[in-house]
Amino acid sequence: MKKVKSNGITVFFQYIYKFFKVSFYFWIYLLRGAVIYSLIPAFSALFKTVEAIMEGKDEEKVKAVFKDAYHRFNRFKWQSFLFSFLFIVLYVSLYLLNKSSGSLTLILTILALYFTVLLSVLFVYTVHLLGQSPSLPFGKVIIFSFVESIRHFAASLFLLISLGALFYSALANLAFFFVFAPFLLGLVVYYALMKVKLGDADL
Questions:
Q1: What is the DSSP string of 11-49?
Q2: What keywords sit in the KW lines (predicted)?
Q3: pLDDT tier at 4, thresholds 50, 70, 90
Q4: CA 188 → CA 4, 155, 181, distances in Å?
Q5: Cα–Cα distance measured from residue 91 to residue 151, given in angstroms and rounded to the nearest whole number
Q6: What is the DSSP letter of 129?
Q7: What does the longest C-alpha to C-alpha distance in the chain come to?
Q8: pLDDT surpassing 70 at residue 203
Q9: pLDDT class for 137, splitting at 50, 70, 90?
Q10: Among 117, 133, 120, 41, which Cα is nearest to 81's?
C-alpha cells in the first residue's frame, strides 16, 4: 500500500516538473518572436505540449515536443501580429479611458472590455482549432472559432473565468503568474475544449 502511494506521489511530482518546464519554454519561445510575432506559435506549442503530457504521448523530452510544435506553427507570424496589434489597441484604449471620466467614457470602457473579452476567447479557440488543422485557411478557422465559442457557451464561460483568474494572479503575484499561468492555461484548454472539434462546425 505504501509502495503504491509512493509511486503515486512520484508520478505527481513528475507531472509538476514537466509542467514547470512547459511554462519555462513557453516564455522562452514567446520572447524569441518578440511576442507580437510568436503569439500563435508559442500558444500552439503550449497547448500541444500539455496535451501530449496529459495523454502520455511525451516520450521525447518536453523541450523537443515544445520545439517541434512551435516550428510547425511558426508560419503564422503575421496572424500573430494581427492578434497582438488588436490586443495592444484594446489595452491602450482601456488605459486611456481609465484616465478619463464622463458617461461617454463609461460606455466606451464597457465596449472596450467587451471586445477584449471577445478577442481573448476567440484567440484561444483559434489556436486550439488551428492545432487540429494547420492547413485550413486562417479565415475559416476564425469563423469556426467564433461559431464554436458560442455553441460551447459553458466551456467559453469557464475559459473566460479562468483567464480572469490568471490575469488577477499577474496583478497579485507576478512570480506565481510566470511559473504557473502558462501550464494552468494549457490544462484549462485541454479539459474545457477537448470536445470542441473542427468537424463539429456546421459551415
A1: HHHHHHHHHHHHHHHHHHHHHHTTTTTTHHHHHHHHHHH
A2: Membrane, Transmembrane, Transmembrane helix
A3: very low
A4: 28, 10, 10
A5: 27
A6: H
A7: 66
A8: no
A9: very high
A10: 41
